[in-house]
Amino acid sequence: MKHLIDIKDLSKEEIEEIISVANHIIDNEKLYSKKCDGKILATLFFEPSTRTRLSFEAAMLKLGGNVLGFASESSSSTTKGESIADTIQTVGCYADIIVMRHPKEGAHLEGLRKSRVPIINAGDGGRSHPSQTLTDLLTITREKGKIDNLTIGLCGDLKFGRTVHSLISALTRYDNIKLILSSPKELQIPEYVREELIENKIEYIETEDICKYMSDLDVLYMTRIQKERFESEDEYNRLKDSFVLDVKKIENAKKDLCIMHPLPRVNEISVELDDDDRACYFKQVECGKFVRMALILKLLNIC
Ligand code: NCD
Fold this sequence. Notes:
globular; alpha/beta; binds N-carbamoyl-L-aspartate
């Protein structure tokens, strides 16, 4: 039984296989429209979501399967005191695959590996978000034709941004990657992420000013300051608009820079940039649906 709790649950070869299936689906969508006939995907979301939940549901529906689930903690029996493990065991009787998002980080998810159906972690607190990473890697591959040999800037909330942690972890497996990590000092990557970079001998720079490196970047991955993870609202208000990407700031950037964002955007990318060819964040949303179709097929062992 294969689960996707952490991006490390997939080997580099498996990631590449999923990306390649996703690319095939994009060109041959109809061929896949009955692959999950009779299968059910459950989405258990204990935290808000627009793209992740709906893209998993759209993916399963596009594969000819069905979906069920809930979109907020208040509609689940955990409010009566049920454990997540019991909820998962129960839902495993109704569904063939489960997607779960939960505000609690890490360790408790390991217990879910006992589940009788595959579990996909759709975000655990500020820690990780592996299916977003597959989305990001598919987007980069489609835009740049490769992942190796790229200079990638990650900007915003690198401390609490779970998409950043999973993406960095995946990128450590590629060759000659250079990372420019830009954030206010208070929102730098957590120590365990820095250790992963060092262990894998990845070249990286930590800075508060991405503009100094703008002309070097092949990809710029913007992120939202994660309001819900701050202990103090004053601290959030102090940091929330620390960097806003706009037309002026990319004047010196490469003509084929790929600007990404997992979304939702709050204020970190000016709307005027949406019409620039380099803005790839809505293409990234589309990639999310296709890569999740490929992921569902992989975890259900359907070719
Ligand atoms: C991200 C998330 O939930 O971590 N969104 C997403 O899944 N596309 C990013 C965010 O909320 O900032």
